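pasting for ref
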Amino acid sequence: MKHKERPLPESIASEEIRDNGDRGLRFLLRLTSVTWLYAIALTLWGTFGSAAYAQVDTGSIQGQVMDSTGASIPMALVTLKNEETGVTQLMRTDARGDYGLSPVRLGLYTLTAEMDGFGREEKHHVQVDIQQQISASFTLKAGSVQESVEVTAEAPLLQTLNASVGQVVDSQQINSLPLNGRNYFFLAQLAPGVTFGQQDTRGQNNNGRFSANGVRPTQNDYLLDGIDNNSSILSTQNGKDYVIQNPVDAIAEFKIQTNNYNAEFGRAAGAILNATVKSGTNQFRGDAWEFIRNDVLDANDYFLNNAGKSRPAFRRNQFGGVVGGPVLLPHIYNGEGKTFFFGDYEGTRIAQGNTITGTVPTLQERTSN
């Protein structure tokens, strides 16, 4: 005999349906939560992940650690500490006592070498510039690690580890020298063999165009923080050969190389202008500016005066600011010595009127008389 299935009471059926719906809703919520967690993790990784610097806008330090007899000291600990951020980098010497630190972002550093059974030696204020290869060797004397010898480093008079021909323009020069329109590309002409580009009718020289060793300006290569900064369109359309022009207050330094530069650059037959933007430090630093030109501050033009015309309206405001420092999130994260930020902004507003003076046909000329 077949047993006839009895339908569930309406109250039980509806409760089971509701429970199934709740389980589906809970599953959807869990899935959504996991998706959001992954999205947040990726965002934080992109924001606070370790920096990977392009090597073309950094330097390097190499050397050897020896004892007082000239014998190499393997496995000696070499410490590199940025004097502004406190970020450190460690490495051990190899079997020959050699070490090499690369890439090293530009800045002031303290180098320390130490080994058990020897006194420690420190070199302070080691300046690393763009594409600079520094040689810094240590001679450790037998003694306790607590004993240390401090050496104040001096800038080398000659770059012996790199055959490239060029010049570094630092932030002091960038901020001190007069610049038309606050355009640091004009300072490339400080390097030997560099001059302004050939005069043309499009006014491209007004944007800092230059020629190195007689090569066409279009053959120059522009880099910013190790990234290609060359304009992809013709300069006749763009009016300049580069894309981004940072405020001079945001540029840490740049190097103009005119000959024998490394093969890692490529592309260029002329010069390479390699600029890098400042970075945040353990102290909050910044500045703001506004440069004003206004017709009320100018004298009238001679010809306008002679014609009894007033000077045309002209108002030019160039303003902006930069700020940098450690990333601080109260009660959440303290980035001193680890995570930093830096930002810049510059805007230019121009309102200009042109007064046209000249002769026009007389009434008789207009009537063909």
